[in-house]
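Re-running ANTAR domain-containing protein to confirm reproducibility after the cluster update. Everything else is unchanged from the original entry.
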Amino acid sequence: MNTRLVIEQAKGVLAARTGIGMEEPLVRVRSHAHARQRELGELATRAARRDLPRQPDPMP
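Result of re-run:
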C-alpha cells in the first residue's frame, strides 16, 4: 500500500482515538519512529491497523 496513504489513515485513526487535531498525530508518530529508530511507514501501518498500545512504551 502507498506509504502516504497509510500515513494519512494512521493520522485519522490516532486523531479519533486520542481526540487531538489532525496534525499532531503525524508529529507524534514521527517522533516515536525517530526515537526508536523505526521506519515511519512501519509505525503508520501499525497505527492504521490499530496495532499500537494505547500508551507508548517508555523512551530508551
